[in-house]
Amino acid sequence: MYCKPFVFIVFLLLLVPSVDAATCTVRNSACPFGESCIFSMFSETNAHISECGMAYTYNVCCTTDLFPLDCHVNTTGTCQTNEGGVISLFNITNSHAELYNLGNYNNNLCCPTLAGWDSYDCHFNTTITCDASETAVVTMYNYTNSHVGNLSDYNNILCCKTKDETPPTAIVTYPPQVPSISISFDVTCTDTGGSGGCNKTIINTTYGNCTVLGAGGTCTIAFPPSSCIYNLNTVFDVNATDLAGNSNYTANYGSFDVKLADLCDCCTPPAECFSSCIECICSSSGDKPFVGFNADNNQIIELGKTEKIYVKIKNPTPTKKSVPLYIGSFDAVKNWMWFEGHKYDTRRNITMTIDAHTEKVVVVNVIGGKTGDYSISIGPDSDYANRYDEINIRVVSKKDGSFFSSTPGLGILSLLLIVFAGAFLR
After folding, report:
1. Are the CB atoms for 144 and 98 separated by under 8 Å?
2. Other CB atoms closer than 10 Å to residue 8's CB: what's the count?
3. Distance, CA of 68 to CA of 150 (rounded, Å)
4. Where are the alpha helices (DSSP H) in 26-134?
5. What span, in angstroms and rounded, lies between the C-alpha atoms of 193 and 114?
6. Cα–Cα dist 57/33, whole Å
7. What is the pLDDT of residue 383?
8. Of 66, 76, 189, 379, which has the fewest CB atoms closer than 10 Å, so is most exposed?
9. Are the C-beta atoms of 352 and 260 separated by less than 8 Å?
10. Could you confirm whether domain 169-259 is CATH 3.40.50.1170?
11. What was the pLDDT predicted at 315?
């Protein structure tokens, strides 16, 4: 009773249909349904051959999973599109044979190919066996000027398989302009050949290459770090291959522009940034640092005293900035002011470094040297036209709470003190 399950399993296995590789058989009859006629033979062994149905009753019949239709002899020497050569004949009938395309015979045996395939790869094998991907068709006495026979007649065997000769097609999309950091390519690869699809697509540039496997994806080429590359009209090539080894190489497929990335110097040529050039530094913000007087400051200075005026500097950009500052005036008050901490050195021009998205306050000291109304400006340099901001101040003899109060003249002692201070600060 222990044998019953075993018998049942064997019975089930017999019901499963088998998947066989393509086969070829010499038959003394017409080829049955499911097989195609390749050529005819005078006998099974040591035979001359002819085109199917021309003279002989022995036919080489191969299953349609390799040869879907009957083959024919083409006397022009070239098989047509969607056909592949198997062997060549000296005559259409009563002929010797040779391997296809050796060039000795002009009558080629052409066989229609399976859908998606372009040709046949048929070759001479002296090991009496074909590779697993190939089908044994007949045996031959020699590779040219030869008789043929069934698969047990000679030691030299004719092995055939389908052949894909159609290269794949790759479509590459990319940004036409990139900063000098990296560039990414999107690849879609299509293969209409029968070999099974795309293998890989390689994109070559002067900065290196990148590879996308299979039917598509994205690859990125990184530029040399911190190099601030600037290169317009950078040409690249594309090479796509399929699983059969077919290659589709396109030289000068396209081009892109590389411009200076953020943090690159844009004051020396080439000066074109990918984004914007701000204070000699490329920045994607597009905003310059803001510099201005604090409007809430008291702009009245009492005669002979020193007041502090505040300047606000704000950096809205995503990069660190160096901001030059120059405090000036067309009036005599320019001799009575200095930046905090710089009374005895740079006095009226300094450079501030501001981190990204931060702000600082700079203090300007001003002495009330003489009563009157004055104008003070702050800018990047001594050119008054380039000023960031400007305020008006009034020096009064005594503060009384009003912005514009009357201002009596100076006493002799006060005047001497101010003249002395002004001469010292020049």
Report:
1. yes
2. 10
3. 21
4. none
5. 11
6. 17
7. 83
8. 76
9. no
10. no
11. 80
User: What is Dmax (Cα atoms) for the chain?
Assistant: 141
In a 3-state reduction of DSSP, which class is residue 334? helix
Residue recorded with tokens 């020193």: 306
Q: Residue 238: what pLDDT?
A: 98
Class of domain 290-425: mainly beta
- Least Cα distance to 117 among 196, 61, 39, 188 occurs for 196
Going by the DSSP 8-state scheme, the letter that residue 333 receives in this structure is G
Determine whether 393 is exposed, middle or buried from the number of CB atoms within 10 Å of its CB (0-12, 13-18, 19+): buried
Joined together, the tokens standing for residue 148 give 């043929």
- Assess contact for 51 and 39: CB atoms under 8 A: yes
DSSP of 288-331, one letter per residue? PPEEEE-TTS--EEETT-EEEEEEEEEE-SSS-EEEEEEEE-SS
Residue 359's nearest CA partner among 391, 390, 317, 306 is 317
Q: Based on the number of CB atoms within 10 Å of its own CB, is 129 exposed (0-12), middle (13-18) or buried (19 or more)?
A: exposed
Residue 265 has a pLDDT of 84
Q: Domains of the chain: which residue ranges?
A: 21-163, 169-259, 290-425
Whether residue 365 contacts residue 421, with contact meaning beta carbons closer than 8 Å, is answered with: no
Cβ of 113: how many Cβ atoms within 10 Å? Answer: 23
What region, left, alpha or beta, does residue 152 occupy, with left being phi > 0 and alpha being psi -120 to 50 degrees? alpha
- Report the pLDDT value the prediction gives residue 7, as an integer from 0 to 100: 37
